[in-house]
User: Fold these one by one.
Assistant:
Number 1:
Amino acid sequence: MSYPVGVGLAIVAVIIVISALVQISQYRRGQQLISRSQLTLRLVMAVLLLAIIGLSFGGVVYFNTRQQPLTEIIFWLMLMLMAVVVVVLAVVDLRQVRRAQHRARAELYERMAQLQREMKAAAEGKQADNNKID
């Protein structure tokens, strides 16, 4: 692994850690509209991504000094499997976000409809009062 790639992956790892800490902080302060299960899902993804980065570094160092083709193939296949798991978890998280967004939009439309009914009732009541005066 070249030096710039290693530095780039280290920077990505730091960004992942900072993002996870920000998510936890915002959730605890109530600034996030995500559920506890979504937070857990995101933290699991962060841990898996950090494991993939760390194991990539370790694998490159370990397999540069030893010639074990079968072990190396299994190792890299396991890392790819972990990456696929991260992608699947990300899709699950995206579906949960969209579902929550849909619920929030439906609730907003329901509140708008209720307000419209109240305004219509108030206007009819005012018109009825005006008709009584005439």
Note: The chain has a mean pLDDT of 90.
Number 2:
Amino acid sequence: MKYSTIPFLLLVLFSACSSQSGSDAAASSKQAAPAPAFPTLPIETIRTLVAECDYIDIIMYQPQFSMSQNERSAVMATLSHISEVPAVHNAANPATGHIFYQAKGQTLLEADLYLRNEGSYLVFYQDGKPAFANAMTQQGVAFFANILSQLQGAPQQ
């Protein structure tokens, strides 16, 4: 619950710090509306994933690639890539990939994966709509960057 207020507080702080005087500054701040802020994934959901998730399917879009994880250590390592830090989602950028978190053949959660220079993060879905956004840990960024670098160096079939 305490994490759900963080994006709102950051937005209020940002607004207070960036307020400027003059009509030109007010007009320009109205034109640059911030990206929609999503709360972080609820701790209960993370606990459920840790307790129940036994399979992760990762689909990368460019280059096209998919991989699955079903060993407990690999699943836990991938779950540890979810940071507690909230992420600002830029809807103008396309997702790099998509992740399915599953238990006993049922999808528990889905997320779009965004690997960007300005910040890598996950946007989680609830009822088919984006609902939560968490930054990725540095280990998660390194993991996916390593996969992409290997794919880009691999010969095309």
Note: The radius of gyration is 18 Å.
Number 3:
Amino acid sequence: MKYRITLRTNLRRGSFFWVAEVEAANEEAAAVAAEKLFEEQMDSGEEWSFEEYDAEPA
């Protein structure tokens, strides 16, 4: 089954979100697959930057 999964981690100075589409047997497996994709992306050495943002008064 195909899942669109959003992972979030809370860092000291903010939160980081990773959104990915993966094929997996269930939601837990989808989360693991999305984490693996994130690790592969970070280890690839490819440069990246944020392309979109949403700003609102705090």
Note: The beta strands are 2-11, 14-23.
